[in-house]
Amino acid sequence: MRSGKQRLYILVLAGILLIAGTLAYIRYFATFRFWLPPPVGDGAAGPSVAREPFEHPWTTGNVVLLGIGDSVTAGFGASPGHSYFEMLFANPEDEYPEMRGVCLRSVLPNLKPMNISVSGSDSIQHRNEQVGELKPFPEAELGIVVMTSGGNDLIHWYGRGSPKEGAMYGADFAQAQPWIENYRTRLNEMLDRITSAFPGGCHIFLANIYDPSDGVGNPAAAGLPPWPDMLRIHDAYNGVIADAAEARDNVHLVDIRAAFLGHGVHCVQWWRPHYRKDDPHYWYFTNLEDPNDRGYDALRRLFLNEIEKVVRKQFDEQLSSGQIRRWRVARK
After folding, report:
1. 195 phi and psi angles, rounded to 5 deg
2. How far apart are the C-alpha atoms of 227 and 219, rounded to whole Å?
């Protein structure tokens, strides 16, 4: 009798452990392996943005908001009106209360948006087909340029073919070295060409490349082929971006990599070093390489804070009485 009860207790305990283990696996490991929807959360995402700087115009002069790059700037995966570029320019109708009126159009009434970014494009196409075809802007127009370039160089084509320049997925570091240096050359060429297209001056806000693996470097967790040198090559590309920004007074790094760590495929794994206890949610779209609406909200805030810090200060220093003067542009 006692042995029968013991067996029953053991079976019950084993069943409880099996159920608990299955639920834990589904919660922490199975989301991307079995196409279960990741937890995206709701509400605002990313850093706060101070309202006070957006309560008065910065200038009434002519300014161009120019978007260059890939699907992140093109807004792939965003709901209508919710790409970061669109929200930089103007608030969406369903804007969060604390962000109403906090946009560039509020402080730059003669701002003209111009987004030439293309989804799926790589940095070779950015140089040849976007920046290479820019026509000079009038000297009376100042430029605010937002740019994402290089991410598709890394993730294309998801291991479906042999690695090559512009589609490096799966490459080892030695193989990637010349492509990384070519990217350095391309990026410098693009930044110089963009600057020369604005004789009145411009500021370029250049994002680095985020890491959906949350610093773990295991694309297999998202159903992609293994890539042992992924993080090393990713870090090298971000190093090129940081170097290019550091070398120029008018180029400003927007660190989206740091902001997005903990919001990728391991966002629910509380033991990871980048776990975000305050917002343990996924900021990427279903394709892994673009943001979802909350991710675009975070991007908008990151760019907006950097633009406010740089551009408003520049207007305060160089613009008075509605008179536009040339923004100083120099290499460091």
Report:
1. -60, -40
2. 7
